[in-house]
Request: fold
Amino acid sequence: MTPPRPVGDRFRRFRERLAAEGSDQPQASDERLSVGSSAGPPTGRRGGRRKGGGEELRVPEAEFTSYYGRPILKAPVWKWDIAAYLFTGGLAAGSSLLAAGGQLTGRPALRRAGRVTALAAVSASAVFLIRDLGRPARFHHMLRVAKPTSPMSMGTWILTAYGPAAGLAAIAEAAGALPGHGPLGLAARVLPPIGHAAGLLAAGTAPALATYTGVLLADTAVPSWHEAYPELPVIFAGSALASGAGVGLLAAPPAQAGPARRMAVAGAALELYGAHRVETRLGLLSEPYRLGRPGRLLRAGRLLTATGVAGALLGRRSRLVGALSGTALLAASVLTRFGIFSGGVASARDPRYTVVPQRARVDARRAGMDLPADRADPPAV
Reply:
């Protein structure tokens, strides 16, 4: 037989001594020193002081940290170009709706401004999207399948349907500058009806273009985006209408700007309602939309939206006031998109916005199923 090891004997004696000391401790909870108590240090072995003296044991305050100080979620790698893409996509959609309104009500200034702006905005959207993808071929690869459950796949097909229609509608505006004879004369006669049909097709696709980006953000694991899934499409739809109305107020004379003013009121109502909901309904996850840079952007956006709508309604006979109101609405749409984008990124970087809501859901599930603590599902961190 081999002799017992000294280290093993020491550990065994140490464990037995700890067990003996634990049996001597009082069991009444009122004899323990509460954390953060103002009472002085206890004497003897009660209140967390070890036998023979030593430092008082206190429970440290909980801190929301993660392994090696890294965030629990990987923050989105998207940069400012995606936030700009959110704005230009909404601007294109709102401009197509404005152009369709001008087309159906016989307001050529609104129709022309809306069609040209829609083509410019969707072209800028394509540039921002391809810049983020890194290679243009990746956009083409997305067209290999159509997956209704994927907002990215549906967004690719929406852009594919909207872009050519908006382009044809804008090109048709050049028909008036073509000569009336020869091949160009034929083009001058054919382009207006083609532009009419293309403009209506673009307007029919515009609501999906304006709102799919909100669904795309809510489909991610970013806490403040994911929990705001009912409000983000509403905010983006209102922002698209407000930006389209801003184009109409800037480009059209007051006599033709009636549809733009009505669009401004509708868009501001949707945008302000959605923004108020995300800042009040989400509880802890509303904080990223109220604090820091996102909070400043969203507050400025609300102020500019209200200013633009007030100017559009009160200064309906002044071209200058209309232009200033349109500029305010466009700036408000930019600030709103960047504020929503920044708020989501901020929520992904702080572990608190991931851990606390998950614990609350686990507690609610445990209470609803009447399960003991050891049988409840742990938070999926």
